[in-house]
């Protein structure tokens, strides 16, 4: 098989053909600035507002609650920094988890440097927080809870309804990084009592560089803008709107909603086929995360006695694109912060690979991976002193 087999959709994916087709006119023909009053500008604004409705519809929000951004990292920063900034220097305590995306963790670290107190909740071996721990962590100054919807490495889905209820009952703002969840599983911000939610377009078939932040209409106080200038995006984010990409995000959201159940079933079938085939052929393999409650496209697997970076590179040589769960240097091998927080043993965890499936993957591709990876593991283990000792 000469073509590339792409199994890294949690990192990014291709722009869907329907999305690209919808975007093209806004580069060349419908090129107006949405802030302009002439017809070209107003046609562009209509396209933006149509996209806003589609994104809102995907997550059960109102269109005026959707702010377009450059992606998930900006949305996370906007929600967390913007909300804490709106408190105007009042004492603030933030609760998050130890397995958040770096866009959340580094933002909270930044706030700590300016005097904000933070609690990082531990997770269990499945990568989930204990709801009792969350409740115990709340203090009088707790202003914000930011917990991801689904983990990008393991696919583990968090108990967002319970977290949302606790936050709402206590009068605490609740933000969730839903970058990996939106477009893959049903998400409803009203039902789950979510105040702010981050979206990244390129995780669901839209281009890179576009995303959205949902902000509940009556959230008080409202986050302050990170980018100042004109009165774009309800005076919440200055800058000329990226019309082609926003249009693409809208189409991707519409497709995601229409295909949600069917796509989920198809990807789960492929993922389960992949896992069963690997477990049947290779010993000393561990699946990380909550296998009963995770994204249907994600499998995080640790292969004992091999090094993840070497495995990833060898797979790439064979045309298989995946990501590793560890970072290696000449001196040491460091587990990802997610696996470390889950208490994964270093000997096992250093051989971690994340398979994340998506648009275009087929049974033929999965079968090729199943046939290829045992040979690679066998060769790498033969080179491992740990395996020989075992």
Quick recap:
This protein has helices spanning 17-28, 39-59, 72-86, 102-113, 131-137, 160-170, 232-235, 243-281, 308-317, 337-341, 346-349, 363-382, 385-389, and strands at residues 5-6, 66-69, 93-97, 117-121, 142-146, 173-177, 196-200, 211-215, 285-288, 298-303, 320-321, 323-324, 326-328, 333-335, 352-356. With 390 residues, the protein is of the alpha/beta class. It has two domains: 5-12 and 260-389, Aspartate Aminotransferase, domain 1; 17-255, Type I PLP-dependent aspartate aminotransferase-like (Major domain) (Aspartate Aminotransferase, domain 2).
Describe the structure.
- The protein is an alpha/beta fold.
- The chain has 2 domains: 5-12 and 260-389, Alpha-Beta Complex (Aspartate Aminotransferase, domain 1); 17-255, 3-Layer(aba) Sandwich (Aspartate Aminotransferase, domain 2).
- Helices cover 42% and strands 16% of the residues.
- It contains 13 helices and 15 strands.
- The strands form 4 sheets. It has a 7-stranded mixed β-sheet with strand order 2-8-7-6-5-3-4, sandwiched between helices.
- A hairpin with a 4-residue loop joins β13 (326-328) and β14.
- α8 (243-281) crosses α12 (363-382).
- The longest helix is centred in the C-terminal third of the chain and has 39 residues, at 243-281.
- The relative contact order is 0.16.
- The model has no long low-confidence stretch (mean pLDDT 95).
